[in-house]
Amino acid sequence: MHTIVTGANRGIGLEFVRQLLARGDMVDAGVRDPARAGDLHELGAAAGGRLRVHACDVADAASVQAFARALGDAPVDLLVNNAAVYGGERQMVDDLDFEEAARTFATNALGPLRVALAVLPLLRKARGAKMVHLTSGMGSIADNASGGYYGYRMSKAALNMASKSLAIDLRGAGIASVVINPGWVRTDMGGPGATTSPAESVASMLKQIDALTLAKSGAFLNWKGGEYPW
Ligand SMILES: NC(=O)c1ccc[n+]([C@@H]2O[C@H](COP(=O)([O-])OP(=O)(O)OC[C@H]3O[C@@H](n4cnc5c(N)ncnc54)[C@H](OP(=O)(O)O)[C@@H]3O)[C@@H](O)[C@H]2O)c1
């Protein structure tokens, strides 16, 4: 299988690359700064040429276009749209940084859509290609019982909508699009108190992704299996 992973230098993205390489896949990894992707390069050194590392800032249109060109023209089976930011602390009703919220939206909502459209020609070349966008339980309207975190919550809710439209628009091309909630994961974003290791979350998400067919395209998946409330 040939997979693209964004935000691949740390956290959940890095773990996706680790597990995909371990099972023999070919991976194109996008990172904001390849010079600061030591752990990723280490994985590549042991992968016998199956990992390529590229610059890709998902919030920057020119960077995403250059990334897509660098991929070449081989078919791509899976896009893991993982890169995202949390958006800082000033996301509350009594202290909201609108500029930071806009940057969060550009990265978390427009970024994955921009990447998906840029690599779409390569996904169209594969049979049964899939797009998986990493969302969050915080992007669920039904699950929002605590409020706040406007920038992050709104960006992920918008990503959910983009994925649903992609599922509809690309069904005819045989390409599935879903969002998946990775759970609460021990990364820089999730923090040390999170309940799930990156290894456990990614192993379980890969099971859901492997089982994904067009019949489930458009869904909001949960990392443990099943669907998450919108
Ligand atoms: N951890 C959790 O508990 C949790 C829960 C729900 C959802 N998620 C979602 O899961 C995904 C991965 O999260 P994580 O916990 O692994 O986060 P993380 O540890 O903060 O890592 C985020 C990754 O995204 C990259 N990134 C940020 N902005 C980028 C941009 N403009 N262009 C390219 N890459 C960019 C970062 O690169 P740099 O090193 O350059 O900053 C980093 O590689 C995200 O979509 C997140 O929203 C995580």
**Quantity of strands, as a count:** 9
User: Structural class, from helix and strand content?
Assistant: alpha/beta
Instruction: Bin the helical content.
Output: 40-55%
Morphology call: globular
Question: How many DSSP H or I helices?
Answer: 6
Which spans of ≥5 residues are poorly predicted at pLDDT below 50?
none
The H-and-E topology, N to C, reads as: EHEHEHEEEHEHEHE
Give the radius of gyration.
16 Å
In round numbers, the mean pLDDT is 98
The largest pleated sheet is described as:
7 strands, parallel
Bound small molecules, by name, code or SMILES, are: NADP nicotinamide-adenine-dinucleotide phosphate
- What fraction of residues sit in β-strands? 15-25%
- Side-by-side strand order of the widest sheet: 3-2-1-4-7-8-9
Distance between the termini: 30 Å
Note down, in words, how this protein is organized:
With 230 residues, this protein is an alpha/beta fold. Helix content is 40%, strand content 17%. It contains 6 helices and 9 strands. It has helices at residues 11-22, 38-45, 61-70, 98-125, 150-170, 198-211; strands spanning 2-6, 26-31, 51-55, 78-81, 91-92, 95-96, 130-134, 176-181, 220-222. The strands form 2 sheets. The chain has a 7-stranded parallel beta sheet with strand order 3-2-1-4-7-8-9, with helices on both faces. Strands 5-6 form a two-stranded antiparallel sheet. Helix 5 (150-170) links the parallel strand 7 (130-134) and strand 8 (176-181). Helix 1 crosses helix 6 (198-211), helix 3 (61-70) runs parallel beside helix 4 and helix 4 runs parallel beside helix 5. The longest helix has 28 residues, at 98-125. The radius of gyration is 16 Å and the shape is globular. The mean pLDDT is 98. The chain binds NADP nicotinamide-adenine-dinucleotide phosphate. NADP nicotinamide-adenine-dinucleotide phosphate (NAP) binds at residues 6-7, 9-13, 32-33, 56-59, 82-85, 107, 111, 134, 136, 182, 184-185, 187-190, 194.
